[in-house]
Each structure stands twice: as C-alpha cells, then as structure tokens.
Specification:
- A hairpin with an 8-residue loop joins strand 12 and strand 13.
- The chain starts with a helix and ends in a 20-residue tail after the last strand.
- It has two domains: about 110 residues, Sandwich (Immunoglobulin-like); about 180 residues, Lamin Tail domain (Immunoglobulin-like, Sandwich), CATH 2.60.40.1260.
- It is globular.
- The chain is mostly beta strands.
- It contains two helices and 21 strands.
Amino acid sequence: MNLYRYILWGLGVLVLGSGCSSESAIQQVLGVSAEAPVFLGCKAVSSQKIDFQFSLPVRVVSLYFDPPLEATEVTEGAQVEVTVTQDLPGGSAVTVYMLVEDHQRNTLNLLIPFRTRNERFPSLMITELRTEYAKGKAEFVEVKSLSSGNLGALRLFIASQGDTPVFEFPPVEVASGEYLVIHLRSLDAGLSNETGTDRGASTGPEALVEARDFWVPDTRKRLRKTDVVFFMDQDDQILDAVVLSEKAEPWAKVEVAEAARQVSDQGAWLPSPEPHHAVPSKGTTVTRSISRDEALADRNRAEDWYITATSGVSPGKANTLKRYTPK
C-alpha cells in the first residue's frame, strides 16, 4: 500500500478525508489542457457498486482497492461506475487508487478513501448531552438505538465544528434499546471503541458496561451551549437532531444558523430553526446534563428536553426525570 501511496503522490492527486467529497480533495491534474478532468466525488450506491463523478468523460487506466477487491465491470464517462464481486460489511473503510485519462490523454491520479454501502442503519434517538468539561469529565453525546441495525458510516456532526464529521462509526451491530455514548474528548491513552460484543472493553472515564462507548481523539472542546447536533446517513439524510441555544437571541454564528436550518428543512427539528424554538441550555453544567424525556415519543421539539437536577448526568443509562429549577 505504501508503494502505491508514494507513486500516486508523486504523479497526481491525493484525496483525503473520511468520505468521497470534492470539498476535502487535494487535486492536481497532469497535462496541458485547461479542460482536463476534475474529480468531483464518489459514492457507494450498493453493496457492489461505486460511482465516481468527474467534470469530463474519462476512462479508467488502472484501478486498485485496499483491502483488495476484484472489479468485474468498469464503465467510462463523466460518471464511472465500478462493480466489484465481494460484499463487504456495510460502512467498511476502503481506499481506491485510480488512474484515469480523458480523450486528450490528460491524466488524473486519485487516492480516495470511502465507505461501503450500509443499508441497515438503525433508528436512533439522541437522549442526553453534556456541553461542559471539568475535572476529567468530558462532553458527550448519548444516543439510544430504537431498532437493530449497523452503525457503519453513520456520521455525527456538531455545527460549531464545521461541515466535517466529528465522528464516523465503523461497522457495529447494535440491538434495539442499546445506549451509545460518544465521548467528545479522549482523556486517557489506549481508549478503545466498543465495536464487538464486549461492552466492557473500554475502561475510560465514565465508561459503563451497560453501554457502548466511543471516543473522539484528542482533548479539544467540540460541543457548546449554543450548537446543533445531528446524525446523518450516507445519503445525507438526518436521522435525529437537537438544537441548543443559551439565549433566545438571533444566531451569532453562521454555521449554527445554517445547521439549524438544515435539520429543520428535513423535519428533524420543529417548528422552526429559530433560537426561540431551540432547547434552552442556560443552567447546564458538568453535573446537570441536557436530557430528553425518554417516556415521550420523539417529536423533534424543544419540549421533549430539560436540564437535569444537579448530579443528574447519566451517560449510558436511562435519564432521571429530576429537573433543574433555576433559583
């Protein structure tokens, strides 16, 4: 793999990131034509088909997958469809090395990481968040699976962190009723994501045997009292979201306003994306989390949420109904 990486780096384009997005691509076209092809993105459309989009029609000169996959059919054109023989677990990480050329023999080398198609995302509900950090207790997002399924390629976004996912799940089989906790800092060395059957594999801070624990690398802050948190599948459909605002004032940050509008447009937050319809987060602390009333159906509204009483934070467990009362 390293040999391919260095050859392609020397010749052409290295495309970085967890998805096949042209926004994260570093592109360099070899050739003299100003009309040389540009890579636009790719998407796994089924368990055996991957589509690659280009600005101009191209043909594939060479193709290599890591882990190895056998391609049985490769089309030509501005949309190149590659068919492989193997079915991989949904949401598996794959890297493709591709050399293409257009009719003028302008060439483009690509190194593209992507995720295989996952058709079995579970139904999810965000149940608890902690936006504050102190004394080794990190911010987190807790989620409950409402059905069985595979988490592979599920992406967690936090508006204040931009349009790059904060976390992308590997293939993980979950059952209905499981709690998942995404810890937004890694405070200890050697923390492991609980992807198998052993829910006690991780011994990090606030990890519970009853829940699956996942860890976002490094120790910087990622979640704020005024923010938008949402989970998105491979088709950019939002599976669940929550909008937070510390003050009922116009959004101060463009990225938060845009994310609120996005989740509202998809019906994942109602009745509007305005701050006065967000969950009021004033009063939340390290020991007082922002929690959902789990006895209610998910209505995608601020009324589903409350701030727990002091010491009511409960990552990986059902939420307490004791509520914080401002003095």
